[in-house]
Amino acid sequence: MELIIYLGIGAIAGFAAGLFGVGGGLIIVPILYVVFTQMGYDPAVIMHLALGTSLATIIVTSISSLMAHHKNGAVLWNVVKNLAPGLVLGSFLGAGIAGILSGANLQLIIGLFAIWVAYKMFKGANAKVDEAKQLPSTSMQMLAGGGIGIASAIFGIGGGSLTVPYLNKNGVVMQKAVGTSAACGLPIAIAGALGFMFFGAKAQINVPNTLGFVHLYAFIGISIMSFITAKLGAKVAHALSPAMLKKCFACLLTTIGLFFIFKGVSAFF
């Protein structure tokens, strides 16, 4: 029965990822939070489990995504190579920072982040790219990768909502920014998931079917279904208006953001 629930979550997350053109992290984390709460898991570690499991599932979806973008020649591998060291170190470190933060603090941080992403999406930020601009030096790209990695692990995402604007701002056209970001999602997800496993193992949590802060049944169920339904979501997206899709997703993210802010604030009273 438990695995069926996770297959259902994977179906929703994969479809949403394909439909809205984003990684499923911001969809998976709130759903897992609700499911883990209903299962009566320790409230102190529910958010950590949701984030770690989300990053583990992104390993699978990012492989599928980067292969498709690579086939279309949309991945700037030299940029991926420059960002990767920072992404890996930052993501592992971010998992450690998330492990120290309380569940309520994580809820507030993720809630505010979801609303920020919603605002940027609703306003259609970064639609115009100044192609005359150049990416900064290799060392500055590594530093940027570190920042993106830390934030991505704390938010339980593959980093697309951070990497794409960074690349756009530095003159990379949208198609290649998205493709390069998809490739960057893999080192983020691997290092972040390993970090959540490592720091979760040290915390010695008492939740069944887990490896550190990664729930194994949830990882398997979500990965399998999201891989299948992402393609269906992408097909539906082509039949709808991109502007309308962005606005719908922005509304969904605002709801998620407000939900987590409310839960986070409630925990302090």
UniProtKB/TrEMBL annotation:
<keyword id="KW-0812">Transmembrane</keyword>
<feature type="transmembrane region" description="Helical">
    <location>
        <begin position="88"/>
        <end position="119"/>
    </location>
</feature>
<feature type="transmembrane region" description="Helical">
    <location>
        <begin position="178"/>
        <end position="199"/>
    </location>
</feature>
<comment type="similarity">
    <text>Belongs to the 4-toluene sulfonate uptake permease (TSUP) (TC 2.A.102) family.</text>
</comment>
<dbReference type="GO" id="GO:0005886">
    <property type="term" value="C:plasma membrane"/>
</dbReference>
<feature type="transmembrane region" description="Helical">
    <location>
        <begin position="6"/>
        <end position="33"/>
    </location>
</feature>
<dbReference type="InterPro" id="IPR002781">
    <property type="entry name" value="TM_pro_TauE-like"/>
</dbReference>
<feature type="transmembrane region" description="Helical">
    <location>
        <begin position="244"/>
        <end position="262"/>
    </location>
</feature>
<feature type="transmembrane region" description="Helical">
    <location>
        <begin position="211"/>
        <end position="232"/>
    </location>
</feature>
<dbReference type="Pfam" id="PF01925">
    <property type="entry name" value="TauE"/>
</dbReference>
<feature type="transmembrane region" description="Helical">
    <location>
        <begin position="45"/>
        <end position="68"/>
    </location>
</feature>
<keyword id="KW-1133">Transmembrane helix</keyword>
<feature type="transmembrane region" description="Helical">
    <location>
        <begin position="140"/>
        <end position="158"/>
    </location>
</feature>
<keyword id="KW-1003">Cell membrane</keyword>
<keyword id="KW-0472">Membrane</keyword>
<protein>
    <recommendedName>
        <fullName>Probable membrane transporter protein</fullName>
    </recommendedName>
</protein>
